[in-house]
Amino acid sequence: MREKLDRGQDTTYKAGMNRNQKQGRVQAISLHVVCNWDINEIVRLYRAGGWWSEEMDPRSIPDLIRGSHRFVVAVDEITGSAVGMGRTISDGISDAYIQDVVVLKEYRRCYIGLQIIQLLTQLCVEDKISWIGLISEPGTLPFYKKIGFQPMEKYVPMIYRKMESDALSQ
């Protein structure tokens, strides 16, 4: 069993060869568990996921990466660019949430997202985290079921939205 990662240490995993069906070429993809990464590449991935707005500050990316339990970047070994990412948020003991999993459109359907999720899950299990959850995009339930995730019956994911009454009281 691999030793637990030190928070200041980056680790690389070979993700294997993937056939990029759109370009018809074979790619070598590696997965990197990182504590820092090029800000512009991470912003590009957040934009690809539709999760970046212009009022967000790119200078917050290093803190976002360091504040994650694990942050994984998928790299095309041929171009050297980041083509996907994902992260876990956790206290490192009991619960973990997988989030921000995205793969650039031209690299999708090459199992990169699957490998990111499998690595994040494996790292949580190695850290003895027993509850690993995520919120899936509409239409992705069959994908997540195939890799061991199940819907949480009778539970509803929620998000805080500042209420008008809160704004009036300030």
Secondary-structure blueprint of this entry?
Blueprint: E1 11-20, E2 25-33, H1 39-48, H2 61-67, E3 70-76, E4 82-90, E5 95-103, H3 112-126, E6 131-134, H4 141-146, H5 164-168
Parallel strand pairs: 5-6
Antiparallel strand pairs: 1-2, 2-3, 3-4, 4-5
Q: Roughly how much helix do the residues carry, as a percent range?
A: 25-40%
Radius of gyration: 17 Å
Number of strands: 6
Count of helical segments? 5
Shape: globular
Major pleated sheet: 6 strands, mixed
Termini separation (Å)? 53 Å
State the secondary-structure class: alpha+beta
Low-confidence stretches: 1-7
Strand content: 25-35%
Order of helices and strands: EEHHEEEHEHH
Adjacency order of strands in the biggest sheet: 1-2-3-4-5-6
Q: What this model shows, in words?
A:
The protein is 25% helix and 28% strand. It has helices at 39-48, 61-67, 112-126, 141-146, 164-168; strands spanning 11-20, 25-33, 70-76, 82-90, 95-103, 131-134. It has a 6-stranded mixed sheet, sandwiched between helices.
Put the structure in a nutshell:
With 170 residues, the protein is an alpha+beta fold.
Key traits:
170 residues; alpha+beta; six-stranded mixed β-sheet; 5 helices; 25% helix; globular; disordered N terminus
